[in-house]
Specification:
By secondary structure, the protein is an alpha+beta fold. Helices cover 67% and strands 11% of the residues. It is built from eleven helices and six strands. Strands 3-4-2-5 form a four-stranded antiparallel beta sheet. Strands 1-6 form a two-stranded parallel ribbon. A hairpin with a 1-residue loop joins strand 3 (78-82) and strand 4. Helix 1 (17-37) crosses helix 6 and helix 8 runs antiparallel to helix 10 (266-300). The protein is elongated. The two termini are 37 Å apart.
Length: 322
Amino acid sequence: MIKLVSDNINFDFLGKRKLGAILSLTLLAITIALLVVRGLNWGIDFTGGMLVQLQTEKAAPIGDIRESLVDAGFVGSTIQAYGADTEFLVRLPVSDSETEEHGGNISGAVASTVAGIAGPTDVRRTEFVGPQIGDELKEKGILAILLAMGAILVYVSVRFEFRYAIGAVMALAHDVFLTVGFFALIQKEVSMPVLAALLTIIGYSLNDTIVVFDRVRENHRGNPKMKMFDVLNLSLNEMLNRTLMTSLTTLVVLMALYLFGGEVINGFALTLIFGVIVGTYSSVFVASPVVLWMERYADKRPKGKGEDEIDYAAIAAGKVRD
């Protein structure tokens, strides 16, 4: 079996938790600043409008195409290359009424305008999304992410304990928020595939965190007198090979999709690439430190009658929960 690190590795992950917290808080602050200053480049799925995919006979500068469309009256349109240098996506901010009255002619007029710059032009695809539908999709997308995290909070609480659930959900929120910030930074279009990728990140990151938590529980039961700090460090080191191998093999597949999958899944693959990287990081430097913090917080709380000591022996025997 291929191993990326030695079985005898004993890295002090929890000892570096403050550095991890500083890094995460810095990145979260940058994300907030990016969202406020630059915002997200919402795609037509969420903003509404008309999308026309064109195939031209020859390549042409995007600036020249944009200028010709503005001269033709298509003010506010955006143009981007779509894979080959002879394919373009044109987005038009048209209203429902405009589309109902002239929808069939708009794409033809756009193609005719572009033909004056890039030669004979074919319309490969035309899509329209009403502004109201776009707003509903945006709200439902955000709601889907929140519901997913709520369900995970309940699931991890039942399978482990509430403190583990808090650690897992904070790690997932960290991953999703940083991924959104990444899109605000590069101004990559946020489309439905990107939203699907965000939900996929939640599933991937949770799986990674659950595997670590399972090992923590096993080690806790096998070493009831060991402090949680050491149990977490031991578990993270034991799972390091598995975590790295899973992440790297997943990244290899995603890189292949990103490089050779075409424009249709480009955003989906890019979202997952960033999400897998931050998800691997958060499993170690977000989820586990949160569990440790909550463990210590619980230890410092005033104990009620009969709660002076945690009976780890009973926990190991599966009789009570700590």
